[in-house]
């Protein structure tokens, strides 16, 4: 599946919708990996992507409530598994 491209506004909305990231330049993702706001879509130590909490493959959508910032390695590990959920 082709990776979706998100606008900068959507990226900021996703970042700020996470209570651990809101208003910060760096935070920890669901797996405890440190991510930095300005490392979006980079495959480096602090790189992150936008993850679908409920994967598209299982009927999830692009609503802000279904999106979360996730370290790119965490996103690879999670894949399309429906058994992971957003941090409460």
UniProtKB/TrEMBL annotation:
Superkingdom to which the source organism belongs: Bacteria
InterPro entries this protein is in? HNH, HNH_nuc
* Ranges for domain HNH nuclease: 25-76
- Point out the signal peptide segment: none
Q: Recite the UniProt keywords alphabetically.
A: Endonuclease, Hydrolase, Nuclease
Mind telling me which SMART domains this protein's record contains? HNHc (SM00507)
- Which GO terms label this protein's molecular function in UniProt? endonuclease activity; nucleic acid binding; zinc ion binding
One Pfam annotation reads HNH
| Name this protein carries in UniProt | HNH endonuclease
- Protein species of origin: Candidatus Hepatoplasma crinochetorum Av
Q: What is the lineage of its organism?
A: Bacteria, Bacillati, Mycoplasmatota, Mollicutes, Candidatus Hepatoplasmataceae
């Amino acid at each position: 599946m082709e990776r979706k491209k998100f606008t900068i506004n959507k990226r900021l909305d996703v970042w700020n919708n996470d209570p651990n990231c809101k208003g910060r330049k760096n935070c920890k993702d669901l797996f405890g990996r440190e991510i930095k706001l300005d490392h979006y879509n980079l495959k480096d130590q602090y790189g992150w992507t936008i993850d679908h909490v409920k994967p598209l493959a299982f009927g999830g959508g692009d609503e802000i409530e279904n999106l979360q910032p996730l370290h790119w390695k965490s996103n690879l590990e999670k894949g399309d598994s429906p058994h992971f959920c957003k941090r409460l």
